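in:
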């Protein structure tokens, strides 16, 4: 157990050092690129808040790569100090090095999942919001915050155009289209305001209702009219924002809402899986890094570790990009798209460790 904790402690220190270095490097680059955005009264406090939130988001995004580098550096240091040679002379195989490092990687992965839900997801959104509202530099945030306008009802027989939201679950400037099974317009309802009533009813104000028949259409107007639609108020709870900047529980609820309204859910389903699969990638990545660092003919220490880590990271992110594209296009399931890169790296790590042993 002493050897286990000795190696685990070194792996944890290497991981923290690598993560801090990556985050600081990112912040230096970010500050140099966006320094001209921070102007006006209170700019310093705003900049500090932006970069603290950015640091939290970047820490989550780069933690698997930092664990990969930390595992490689730990194995390299054991070889540099001849500790690994002594272990081999005592008949201890590479798994005596791998197990404590993989235990640290497991703790890191679990910590990343919790950290994303508690801090990282909201931090990215908060940083973009501050840039957009205080420094006029958050075009992406504005794009993601645009409210959803069009909704399809259950069965596709009713389409809602809700152009703005009011207080208390009300909607402004409403258009509702009712379609026949042959996809022919049967009725159109326009109202200045729609708000939820009791027992699943909707109250529409300043209403114009057009009923279409083969002979023409009939127009009815009313100051206030009560309708009963299939959709309850919760059915329109489509939340603006990037799914990557939502907690996993929120992503799950948005998947259900969007399915009920006939909206696309591929990005949300993929993100729901990714919030577990991406942190878990720290485990197979660390295994592959160990296999490369412990091979017999390996030369170099820190330089070799950095080069191997960069190579594995690039390969992983490339595979991840391909898998996510296939998942978003519907060619493979979101679960397969999220977990395929982890599975490939895990197989490669197990094969390499067995081959190089």
């Amino acid at each position: 157990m002493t050897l286990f904790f000795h190696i685990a402690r070194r792996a944890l220190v290497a991981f923290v050092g690598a993560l801090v270095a990556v985050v600081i490097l990112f912040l230096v680059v970010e500050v140099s690129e966006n320094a001209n955005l921070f102007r006006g009264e209170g700019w310093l406090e705003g900049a500090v808040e932006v970069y603290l939130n950015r640091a939290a988001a970047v820490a989550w995004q780069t933690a698997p790569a930092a664990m990969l580098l930390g595992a490689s550096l730990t194995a390299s240091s054991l070889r540099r100090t001849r500790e690994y040679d002594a272990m081999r002379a005592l008949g201890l195989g590479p798994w005596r090095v791998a197990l404590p490092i993989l235990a640290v990687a497991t703790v890191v992965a679990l910590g990343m999942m919790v950290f994303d839900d508690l801090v990282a997801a909201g931090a990215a959104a908060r940083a973009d919001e501050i840039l957009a509202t205080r420094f006029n530099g958050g075009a992406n945030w504005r794009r993601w915050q645009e409210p959803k306008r069009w909704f399809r009802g259950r069965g596709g027989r009713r389409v809602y155009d809700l152009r703005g939201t009011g207080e208390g679950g009300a909607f402004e400037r409403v258009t509702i289209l009712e379609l026949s099974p042959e996809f022919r317009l049967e009725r159109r309802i326009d109202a200045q305001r729609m708000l939820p009533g009791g027992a699943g009813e909707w109250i529409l104000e300043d209403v114009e209702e057009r009923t279409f028949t083969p002979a023409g259409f009939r127009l009815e107007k009313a100051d206030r009219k009560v309708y009963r639609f299939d959709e309850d108020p919760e059915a329109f709870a489509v939340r603006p924002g990037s799914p990557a900047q939502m907690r996993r529980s929120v992503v799950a609820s948005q998947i259900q809402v969007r399915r009920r309204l006939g909206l696309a859910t591929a990005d949300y389903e993929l993100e729901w899986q990714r919030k577990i699969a991406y942190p878990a990638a720290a485990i197979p990545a660390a295994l592959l890094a160990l296999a490369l660092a412990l091979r017999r003919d390996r030369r170099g220490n820190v330089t070799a570790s950095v080069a191997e880590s960069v190579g594995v990271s690039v390969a992983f992110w490339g595979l991840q990009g391909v898998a996510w594209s296939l998942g978003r296009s519907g060619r493979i399931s979101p679960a397969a798209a999220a977990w395929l890169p982890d599975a490939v790296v895990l197989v490669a790590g197990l094969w390499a460790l067995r081959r190089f042993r």
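note: Residues 141-146 have pLDDT under 50 and may be disordered.
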